[in-house]
Amino acid sequence: MEEHEPKTDRLYRELELAREELERLRVDRTLSDVQTELLRTLLAFGEKPTRSLALKSIAQQILKSVNQIANISESSLFLLDESGVVVESILARGATIRDRKQSIVGQVLDSGLAGWVYRERQIAIVTDTAADDRWMPLRNTPYQVGSALCVPICRKQRILGILTLTHPQTAYFHAETANVMQELSHRLALVLDLVWSYADDGQPPVSPSSPPRPPTPPSPLPRSPQPELSRPTPSPVKSPTPDTSDRPPKTLPIRSKVPPPPPRTQPPISSRPPLDVPLSRLSKLGLYIVVWDGKFLYANRQLARIFGYRTHELASLKTMFYLIADSHYDIVSEKIYKCVRGQTKYLSCQFLGKCKDATTIDVEIYGVRTQFYGKPVMVGALRKLEV
Prior knowledge:
Radius of gyration: 25 Å
Distance between the termini: 64 Å
Number of domains: 2
Order of helices and strands: HHEEHHEEEHEEEEHHHEEE
CATH class of the largest domain: Alpha Beta
């Protein structure tokens, strides 16, 4: 009997480790789904959404997701601009008169828990609001707060938002919940940063020293030497991997003229207006963010699923150009490059995609250029065409 006890203990430990890993994967998938849905919402606004409308919609969706993840019913969110001014807010108490709402936001940021988090730039757990000086009770609050969790949404040195979760019970929030919310905040920061760079505030820039005047049309971009695109070396049968040899990669110069169309047996590459996909079909879209050479900054699971990859396999690809069939490589890579460089207003075309197992599929891609931390990127969507 005693000889079996060490083996039994080891099996219990392995079972517990398996349960922890399963829970970690479940949480990671949930957070990825939230980020993907937020990006879909942003893309659904079109090529150049109004920033205020995008922030309002994103804020509402964030709170809905947070309440579901933490199993709570009351939470609030402040979204801040570069100077730390609240530009959008949703209070746990619901709709409030504008002046009253501004007063509450000011009090909370001045003397409340959100203000402490903003100044300290760290997460805060309040196990008992009656015994914690950081919590500032407000008059006429339509709900009871026993404990709270406040999380800053940071991107490098900038605070983009402050998220506050509340619950009527004391000691409701623990370290596990804080870790999940902190991981979620990293994903939310990426989306909010894209809103600020991708969306338009609807107002033309005005110099402080001059009176307002109508905006002038932008001047054409000066032509500059264009670097060559590195064409990845196809790998046999299995998932393509970047060339690790010492030989310089084969390069394909950007052409000034569009090559002749492929044979009729292949679907033509056709330019068309931006994708107009109903919201009910957004779940079929693969979402991405890439730099000029096709390197992924972000790709969702649906994009990986379209081409037969796992998410981590897709992220490890050197460039998204691995997903383009050889017959369409030159044209599509040039279109992507021109879009990121701002030489075209947007990217929208059909082409022949290459899956992990080397089979080909018909896909349609849409992308728009934006700035991400001062660098040009392309954010967009891709979908598989039905045969």
